[in-house]
Amino acid sequence: MKKYSAPLLIAATVASFPVFANDDDRLTVYGRANVSLQSNDYGSGADTEVVSNSSRFGFKGAAELESNLEVFYHIEFGIDLADSDDDDDAVSNRNQVVGLRSNFGEVMIGRYDTFLKDSQGSVDEFKDFEADVKGLFRGENRPDNTLTYYSPSFSHFKVGVTYIASENDNQDDGFSFGLLYGDSKLKKTNYYAALAFDRDVNGYDITQLTGATQLGQTRVGVVLQQFETINGSNDSDGYLMSAAHPYQNWVFKAQYQVVDAADDSDSSLSLGADYFFSGDTRVYAWYTGRECDIALFSTRGCNATPGVEQDFVAVGIRHDFSW
Hints:
mainly beta
């Protein structure tokens, strides 16, 4: 019953909004269905599976409280459209916050991406797939018990901070903070840059620099990251470079990521193409090849014996919707 109660609860909650919402509420219901057929060669075995790539459903809105002050909310759930194993929940929690915004910026409380994760913007061209930046880097955190603040923009500059309450006397509270410049989608500015820091977040201290720009029609991006365990026992650094070029209804993408530690490195090379039927619907194909030499530092990526080469191929469809 656990699997089916959560979707029913979501549907009932959304259905109740027209009845109980204030007339001034601006409510948007939205979602994404993103599913692919994926072939996996882990170097020590291979399989084929249908994968739900961070498919989601949620609603968000805002209501004016008084002049220049409004309340906003964002409640989102992850939905697995492919796997129904008893050990996996069909519905999971994603960003879920309520907050206030005005001339002072915006402040929100609940569960939300850390500033460092949010600051990556659109640089990761293979986000939610096997080559997602979290395959080799640290810092992809969406913790509970967060208080987040973003300042208003001053000449395209903005600061932000995430406070994470630990709920544990033996663990320090965490902070994620930094500085942003420009528009991460490169629609309002020609450049995007972000400097972000994690301190005592999920066992790591991290420094990350992100940048993106347009070279003609080609979007290019780079991420530099240095991470260290809080106790200082392990540290590493790495970089990611990405590019995407549109041609008619197509977008062709490439991405390279590497992490170095001591004399070894883990690396990932990805190539892919998206075909857009509309702004909301696309089909895609991609390939990711990964070389694993320092499995010690992997999150979901190189969790294999050092020296292993891995290959992944997928074709899929993504549809975004809202009303």
